[in-house]
Specification:
Elements (H helix, E strand, L loop, with lengths): L8 E5 L2 H11 L3 E5 L5 E2 L7 E2 L5 E2 L2 E2 L4 H13 L3 E3 L5 H13 L7 E3 L7 H9 L6 H28 L10 H17 L4 E4 L1 E5 L7 H8 L11 H10 L2 E9 L2 E2 L5 H11 L4 E13 L7 H12 L3 H13 L1 E2 L5 E2 L14 H15 L33 H4 L5 H17 L4 E12 L6 E12 L23 E7 L2 E4 L8 H11 L7 H10 L3 E4 L2 E4 L1 H13 L6 H15 L5 H22 L8 E6 L6 E7 L2 E6 L8 E3 L14
Parallel strand pairs: 1-2, 1-7, 7-8
Antiparallel strand pairs: 3-6, 4-5, 9-19, 10-11, 10-18, 11-12, 11-17, 13-16, 13-18, 14-15, 16-17, 20-21, 22-23, 23-24, 24-25
Helix pairs in contact: 3-5, 5-18, 5-19, 6-16, 6-17, 10-14, 10-15, 11-14
């Protein structure tokens, strides 16, 4: 793509890595420079939004970016055309618009180029048909920025006055904290319920007498005190023609025992019962491949399979997208753009992956037609799913050019993409009904096993199955009991959120967009509203107090449905279905009323108390929870007459050491 005239065209992207890769494809007629991300923003020292004049924002060059801007202006003076090749999402469009505003190049010489992948063909196609800056997309980004600035700058001083100095609030982040706080309270308020099971192990080998060897096998032998793994247990059962089963019915009713007496009554009937195969049902089950990755599902899979945080996943994905030096092949963008909510795959990419499957795995692994996947409500079909830019560049082939994290993430993306266009895996699922007569009526046990018949997409994407392999059986066949026991269990509280499940919840509720999931998770931890222990989120005392204050005085901001509606309105601004100033007016009026009320009526957190289950050891008055600079603590309700106080642990339970208020 060399230019014939002496004057070069200037191309501006966000990062040096992206600049190097693009420069590799454009040739000598182009000069490629990096803006190093955003170059203008709302100055941090004040609101810088004129709420009386259509929410007009005041932008300024960001600290540390003046030298970059000076260099870009100098280059822009010498260019014949300016190509803004920033990312294709709203943030990228906004960066392009800000550059166009300050570089002093006439509008007729400014072009916008967008591409989904940094490859030779994608770059050449984008530069052959350049467009103009999409102002609707810019206004959608500006509306989000102004909304977030108003909420942050107006509520934060309120929190300084009413809770603690230095706190801050965020329009979307505060709702994410609320989700974690609500789960925290569900767990705290959960009351376990007792229930009993009577599992059994049966064998078709009537002469085996395996009871002692089974119990010996289950005895922990490792230093960590753990028994055999699922795989080891499966092997033992298969070698002894045995299988596990659960009691499903006793007499005419489903088995249900809520205490030891109920369970033992049934157990005594089953302990010496004679069991046989009552029925055998076999049917085929199909496991279909998942769609190719979008931002949220990539973050979830990388967290669950690789242990990556959402922030780390996006950083590594950015490296793969912007380009990796592949030696003799030069610098190449290995994946498509990583901030997307679309599962759409281009026709060209579908053809390439189908050819790959046909040539490497054979026709039986290739569906007759491509697999297509339903799009989410907010998905933008002009975007593509996250996929390798060249499916023939297998992870093994380029491993030597990638660091460990890059290889693991590329391998995950490559496998998911290839798998999504392969045939389903097929299983034979067998369910055994095991029966025995008892004085309480017939007992019915159920056992299920699954055998893989055709691996399909499992050729490239791991198939997980914890179901056992059943021995050959026939109806009426007698069974020997290897083990039967009554087990006490308790219902468990809802699981704590992990990064993966929180991203899933945010996406499900329509909170945030692909570009915001990782920053949300980082921000709520940085602010001290939640903390992560053993990869699980815990709401802090501070997080609970701030959530309660904001929920009471700013119900719309803290409402999930309202937050989702605001995200939809931002999308509609981009789609020319909403005016950004009107959206802000509709938001600001009720918000200002709530803000004024909060300044007048909100009590300081330190002045509020919450009842507790404890009694003061000094004066026998009730102890109450209070909030101090170190979080929650217990204080005597008779304060200041009685000054007893005690710290509490993470669960709010009283600790031994006394503290002063």
């Amino acid at each position: 793509m060399a230019k014939t005239n002496a004057q070069k065209s200037l191309v501006i992207v966000e990062s040096p890595a992206k600049a190097r890769t693009i420069n590799h494809y454009l040739g000598s007629g182009y000069e490629v420079k990096a803006s190093m991300g955003h170059i203008r923003d709302l100055p941090s020292k004040s609101l810088n939004i004129d709420v009386e004049n259509d929410f007009e924002p005041t932008y300024d060059i960001m600290p540390g970016k003046k030298a970059v801007v000076t260099q870009l202006k100098a280059a822009a003076k010498k260019c014949d055309k300016l190509y803004l090749a920033t990312d294709l999402d709203r943030e990228g469009e906004a960066i392009a618009w800000h550059l166009a505003q300050i570089l002093g190049v006439s509008a007729d010489r400014i072009y916008r180029v967008i591409f989904n992948a940094i490859t030779k063909s994608a770059i050449q196609e984008a530069f052959s048909e350049p467009g103009r800056i999409n102002l609707d997309k810019v206004m959608a980004q500006q509306a989000r920025r102004v909304l977030d600035r108003i909420v942050g700058y107006e509520i934060s001083p309120l929190l300084w006055k009413k809770v603690a100095w230095g706190l801050s609030a965020g329009r979307v982040q505060s709702v994410a904290v609320k989700i974690i706080v609500e789960r925290e309270r569900e767990i705290r308020d959960f009351k376990p319920e007792e229930y009993w099971l009577i599992p059994a192990v049966f064998t078709t080998d009537l002469n085996g007498n395996y009871q002692q060897s089974w119990h010996a096998f289950l005895t922990p032998k490792s230093a960590n005190g753990k028994g055999p793994t699922v795989e080891e247990k499966g092997r033992w059962l298969a070698e002894h023609h045995a299988f596990e089963a659960e009691l499903a019915r006793i007499g005419d009713a489903k088995f249900n025992a809520s205490n030891r007496d109920q369970a033992e009554k049934v157990f005594r009937e089953l302990e010496h019962a004679r069991f046989q195969i009552g029925d055998i049902e076999t049917k085929e089950s199909v496991s279909r491949p998942s769609p190719p990755f979008i931002t949220s599902t990539l973050q979830q899979a990388a967290a669950n399979r690789l242990g990556f945080s959402a922030k780390r996943t996006m950083a590594v994905a950015q490296q793969l997208y912007e380009g990796i030096d592949l030696g003799s092949m030069g610098s190449l963008g290995l994946i498509t753009y990583m901030r997307t909510d679309s599962t759409h795959v281009s026709g060209e990419a579908l053809g390439e992956v189908r050819n790959y499957i046909q040539s490497h795995f054979g026709p039986k692994y290739l569906p007759e037609k491509p697999n297509f996947f339903a799009a989410g409500k907010s998905a933008q079909q002009a975007h593509e799913a996250i996929r390798p830019t060249d499916v023939d560049l297998t992870p093994a082939e380029i491993k030597q050019h990638l660091n460990d994290e890059q290889f693991k993430l590329y391998d995950l993306i490559w496998r998911r993409f290839v798998a999504c266009q392969m045939e389903p895996a097929r299983w034979n699922v067998t369910t055994l009904s095991i029966t025995a007569p008892t004085s309480l009526g017939p007992a019915l046990y159920k056992a299920t096993g699954r055998v893989l018949v055709f691996d399909g997409f499992g050729k490239v994407w791991p198939l997980f199955s914890t179901e056992q392999q059943l021995p050959p059986t026939q109806v009426g066949q007698p069974l020997a009991t290897v083990d039967i026991k009554s087990e006490q269990h308790f219902t468990k509280p809802p699981a704590r959120y992990t990064e993966a499940s929180l991203v899933k919840a945010l996406e499900k509720e329509g909170i945030g967009r692909p570009s915001t999931y990782a920053p949300i998770i980082s921000t709520i931890q940085d602010r001290g509203y939640v903390e992560q222990r053993d990869k699980k989120f815990y709401a802090t005392d501070l997080g609970e107090v701030v959530t309660d204050k904001l929920t009471q005085y700013f119900p719309r901001i803290m409402d999930i449905a309202f937050t989702r509606q605001m995200e939809e309105q931002l999308d509609q601004i981009e789609e020319q279905q909403h005016d950004w100033v009107r959206v802000l007016r509709d938001f600001y009026g009720p918000f200002k009323v709530n803000l004024d009320t909060a300044h007048e009526e909100m009590k300081h957190a330190k002045a509020e108390t919450t009842p507790s289950e404890y009694t003061c050891p000094d004066c026998s008055r009730p102890l109450v929870y209070k909030f101090g600079k170190s979080g929650r603590f217990l204080s005597c309700s008779g304060y200041p007459e009685c000054k007893f106080a005690s710290p509490v642990d993470k669960e709010g339970k009283m600790m031994q050491d006394e503290v002063s208020e």
